[in-house]
Description:
By secondary structure, the protein is α/β, with parallel strands linked by helices.
Amino acid sequence: xxxxxxxxxxxxxxxxxxxxxxxxxxxxxxxxxxxxxxxxxxxxxxxxxxxxxxxxxxxxxxxxxxxxxxxxxxxxxxxxxxxxxxxxxxxxxxxxxxxxxxxxxxxxxxxxxxxxxxxxxxxxxxxxxxxxxxxxxxxxxxxxxxxxxxxxxxxxxxxxxxxxxxxxxxxxxxxxxxxxxxxxxxxxxxxxxxxxxxxxxxxxxxxxxxxxxxxxxxxxxxxxxxxxxxxxxxxxxxxxxxxxxxxxxxxxxxxxxxxxxxxxxxxxxxxxxxxxxxxxxxxxxxxxxxxxxxxxxxxxxxxxxxxxxxxxxxxxxxxxxxxxxxxxxx
Length: 330
């Protein structure tokens, strides 16, 4: 496991044990700066090793969550050693020779790998899990999304900073951020990934290009606005979906109620729909408030929440590994 000490790495460790993934030997790897730390695995203490030449010898599977530059640097050596690398960074997602996989959406793509499989962006994973069962029934023409992204998307340090700065505000102090560009305590701001000439940020364009690739819809019209919000570890999305023809709400609701990876949380009488607290530490993408778009007869609106560290990163990677091992139970 490459990047074993980070937030996603820690979740990977927990899920490997929880899901009883077949592991003969686990080798935790990280940068030299993080090497030497002790991790708990199945009741044993494992020492994190530095990633270095020769470290992938005899390794069958690499779960990488150490960032794009690290993945690009070490993927060739891992593949040359005979390993399959499932990468959680953006390094290979749009490479035409690398499958980009969400097991509930395009599991067959995983078997077209040439040594590397890309794990999609967290917001894209959550979105496509909800879109796929609807797209299988009626063609989608356009999708408009607003995301509400938790601190976990920026890593463990951002989560801890949110905790600390929230205490600062409650104590009457002035919150000063050192991890994120602005304080997230009792605040929100537009996603801080680099802005492109189009005016869209990198995170928003990831949703566009990755969704097109995963769903094999190269002409899909999609527009996203991504926002960082003061939530610890679950993302939410408001999604408007335009189809080629009207899509009855009850039909869409019935499809999503039984869709793999989806949990329907919907009580219109009580005004009760998915919340980040419903999915934190859990596998499903919670979907609800499915309704007719009053401005467009061919469009539906829905709301979803999903744990960014779990389904948005670690769980999706392990599900891909389970596909390759034939261990997936659906």
